[in-house]
Design a protein that fits this description.
ThiN, L-fuculose-1-phosphate Aldolase, Cro/C1-type_HTH, Lambda_DNA-bd_dom_sf, Thiamine-phosphate synthase family protein, about 300 residues, elongated
Length: about 300
């Protein structure tokens, strides 16, 4: 009796790690860095590099395997993909390949011929699991934050209260389902300062604006706040974005936001011109954090 997990360990894993190690080395990472990212020893990386590990050609030549290796390799090398997300992506790939009739399932049937008479499906994990969805959102926010960090002059768009770039899960129903930057993005002597890596549940203000907009019918999944200036709003209008104004009536005012979006569900920009004790702010709505960051970069 041989379990499918044994096939994964003996056939898939050595091949996948070998391909991923080679990809990371080609991207300029050192043997030590590759070992750290993959959680293996440097000697193991050396074996992968010198072809001392047996590679299953069927697995190695599968297009989905190669696409996943390239995507994870690029993300790990750039820092846009965490080790957790890389693990989840690899796990999802394993489960897909383990479905009846697929690569790993076929290898399993070769090892256990009696399985060919069984009509069941060995895929036991959901590719759209919550952990995968949330890791994807975090990765997206990291990419958006990196865009802002390297956008020359973005600090001039940061309001006195600070900016934040947030993105929510598809079925978000609270701030715990919205990822953002802890402590907000700050202007430190003309330099954009990112205090920490994105996390879920760390933004109340900008997350609440996004959630209120979505409740009113907006399809946006991300939001970035920047300083208000009439010229900023005019530039966004000239760029073809739909804008909607709301009365803050406090900070933030979910009711006013919902009312504004209800009248303009396709709005890309929400803004308020301030009030007593309330700083005027512009909110950029987009389908993803990187897209919201690009909207801001267009203003520079």
């Amino acid at each position: 009796m041989r379990f499918i997990e044994e096939v994964v360990v003996d056939e898939f894993l050595p091949t996948f790690r070998s391909l991923l190690a080679a990809d990371l080395r080609e991207r300029g990472l050192t043997q030590h860095e590759v070992a750290e990212l993959l959680g293996v020893s440097q000697s193991a990386v050396s074996k992968y590099a010198h072809g001392d590990v047996t590679v299953n050609d069927v697995v190695a030549e599968d297009e989905r395997v190669r696409e996943t290796v390239e995507r994870i390799g690029e993300g790990l090398a750039s820092g846009d993909v965490s080790q957790v997300q890389a693990l989840v992506e690899a796990e999802v790939l394993v489960r897909r390949l383990s479905a009846r009739g697929d690569v790993v399932a076929a290898l399993h049937e070769d090892a256990m011929p009696a399985l060919s008479e069984y009509d069941g499906d060995f895929r036991v994990h959901d590719p759209d699991s919550e952990v995968r969805v949330r890791e994807r959102v975090l990765s997206s926010v990291r990419r958006g934050v990196r865009t802002l960090e390297h956008a020359s002059g973005f600090a001039t768009l940061i309001p006195a209260v600070g900016s934040n770039l947030v993105e929510c899960t598809p079925d978000a129903d609270g701030v715990e389902d919205v990822a953002g930057v802890p402590g907000r993005i700050l202007d430190v002597m003309g330099r954009t300062e990112i205090p920490a890596d994105p996390e879920f549940g760390v933004s109340v203000h900008v997350a609440t604006v996004l959630l209120a907009a979505r409740e009113a019918g907006s399809d946006a999944k991300a939001c970035l706040n920047v300083r208000y200036d009439e010229a900023v709003v005019d530039a966004l209008v000239d760029a073809g974005y739909e804008v909607a104004e709301f009365d803050p009536e406090g900070e933030p005012s979910e009711g006013a936001i919902r009312e504004a979006v209800s009248g303009a569900p396709d709005a890309d920009v929400l803004y308020q011109t301030g009030g007593f004790g309330v700083e005027p702010i512009v909110y950029l709505l987009a389908d993803s954090a990187p897209e919201a960051a690009e909207m801001a970069r267009e203003l520079l």
